[in-house]
Amino acid sequence: MKILKLVALATASFIFSSNAVANSAWYKDFYKDEFTDEKFTMYRTESVNGQFLSLKCGMAPFGKYYEPSIAFHSSSITRTGRTYPLKIRVDKREAISRNAWASSLTSNNFIQIEWGNEKGNAKEVTDKIATDFKAGNRVLVQIANKPSFNVSLSGFTKAFNATHKKCQSLAEKNNGRYFSKVWLPVD
Fold first, then answer.
1. Please, are residues 59 and 118 in contact by the beta-carbon 8 Å criterion?
2. Which partner for 89 in 40, 76, 95, 173 could form a disulfide, CB atoms 3.0-4.6 Å apart?
3. Is the Cβ–Cβ distance between 174 and 184 less than 8 Å?
């Protein structure tokens, strides 16, 4: 009987603590197009079970650049032009649950909360997420009802500020319009 209790306790312990975890900080990733030799970069987290977070140029109404938004990447994002459920919890703050959009402008298997074309409180939600990420230590994320994963927010503010500076520069060169880009060109 004692062995059965021990096995049950060990199993329950594993089930309740089995969130996948990425402990590394946000980092700058690079990509080189082998046909054009153009170089691109993005800030992102380590991949956990085919899922990760990155920063991209965000969009305000009428396609104007706003500030970086977070892209939630998952191999389970298979169709563009539709919404997928997203849950986020930074540290012990209140969780945010909403549908996020898989834009038809992208081909990188990610969803995003873009307030430019959504009604309601999407701007407030995107601002709250950025504020919580800057102040937080870790974030728990669940994309498209797949198993949740946990990532470090160490380095997020630096990555956010660098992405914002780059996106502003790109928007200025493109009449204020530069959005939905995950891979940003390197000068």
1. no
2. 95
3. no
Tally of domains within the chain: 1
- pTM here is 0.79
Q: Residue 94 domain-assigned?
A: yes
Within a 13 Å sphere around the CA of 8, how many CA atoms are in the beta-carbon half? 5
**151-161 pLDDT tens trace:** 999 999 999 99
Decide: 83 and 137 in contact? Cβ < 8 Å: no
Rounded distance between C-alpha atoms, residue 145 and residue 159, angstroms: 27
Helix or strand (DSSP H, E) at 20: strand 20-22
Question: Within a 13 Å sphere around the CA of 145, how many CA atoms are in the beta-carbon half?
Answer: 3
Domain span at 35:
19-185
Instruction: Answer yes or no: is 155 within a domain.
Output: yes
**What is the sign of the dihedral through the CA atoms of 131, 65, 73 and 154?**
negative
Distant-in-sequence, close-in-space partners of 40: CB < 8 Å, separation ≥ 6: 30, 31, 32, 33, 183, 184, 185, 186
- At 83 the three-state DSSP class reads strand
User: For 142-183, what is each residue's pLDDT tens digit?
Assistant: 998 999 999 999 999 999 999 999 888 888 887 766 666 778
